[in-house]
Specification:
The chain is of the alpha/beta class and about 270 residues long. It has 10 helices and 12 strands. The chain starts with a strand and ends with a helix. It comes from Saccharopolyspora gloriosae.
């Protein structure tokens, strides 16, 4: 279950401020695309535009060849699921009730949940290592558990395109890696924003680097996150290495050395 995504020439504004200018992105069926950039570079804005929640001031977004702005809200929700970076869970909900909201686009109006919905909720919770949490009040969850419940709702939506805004926030190392394995193994087309450059390099097929309100094309991790690009965009040094067991690329990140200070200390 996957679909191609194409965004052409997106220009996005928040109020009077232009956040993104002429940003284009394609994702092939089943591909995982990472979006990286400094704080305030427009990662969340881009994902909201790709989900059809934010209407771009210019450009267009197509999922499986269909323009999102020509679909109803229900039709969009059957094609695209967005898991935001932060969201307040309603305190009086049980976990199962909240995750079941992901199945709403497929329900008939005013219909209640049946066996199929309960099975979908249970499967989504198992996928994020929260099996049996259906009757747990959401206000008794830890930060990491709340994050995984949000992800479970997105998985329960069963869309061919999945958009994840900083999905590894509040997750420990085990669940962070488990989540990214789950995304890659789901067969869905996925676009996710990440702060961890090494994690993006190791898990994404291609990476889009946002900087100064725009971006070049998404490219393979070793092309997108060269030491020169990382220094210019993030102001840190990046040393590419190959993991000795997996053979996947990783980045060792460090501060830019200030040679002038070193020179002064030697005088």
């Amino acid at each position: 279950m996957s679909a191609p995504l194409r965004a052409d020439g997106l220009r996005c504004s928040l109020g009077r401020r232009t956040v993104l200018t002429d940003v284009s992105l394609t994702a092939e069926p089943g591909e995982t695309i990472g979006v990286v950039g400094p704080n305030g570079s427009g990662k969340s804005t881009l994902l909201r535009a790709l989900a059809g929640i934010l209407r771009p001031a210019g450009g267009e977004v197509l999922v499986d060849g269909v323009r999102l702005d020509r679909l109803t809200a229900r039709q969009r929700a059957q094609r695209v699921a967005l898991v935001p970076q932060e969201e307040d869970l309603p305190a009086d909900f049980l976990v199962g009730e909240f995750v079941a909201l992901g199945t709403t686009p497929y329900r008939a109006p005013w219909s209640g949940g049946g066996d199929a919905e309960r099975a979908a909720v249970a499967a989504a919770l198992r996928s994020v290592d929260l099996a049996g949490f259906e009757d747990r009040p959401v206000d008794r969850l830890s930060g990491g558990e709340r994050r995984r419940v949000l992800l479970a709702r997105g998985f329960a939506q069963r869309t061919p395109l999945l958009l994840l805004d900083e999905p590894t926030n509040h997750l420990d190392v085990h669940h962070r890696l488990q989540l990214l394995r789950l995304v890659r193994g789901s067969g869905r087309t996925c676009v996710l924003s990440l702060h961890d450059l090494s994690l993006a390099a190791a898990t994404c097929d291609r990476i889009l680097v946002l900087h100064g309100g725009t971006a070049g094309p998404a490219t393979a991790p070793d092309e997108a996150l060269t030491p020169e690009v990382v220094r210019a965009v993030f102001g840190v040094e990046a040393t590419p290495v190959t993991h000795p067991r997996t053979g996947k690329p990783h980045l060792l990140i460090g501060d830019i050395e200030d040679d002038s200070c070193d020179d002064a200390s030697r005088r």
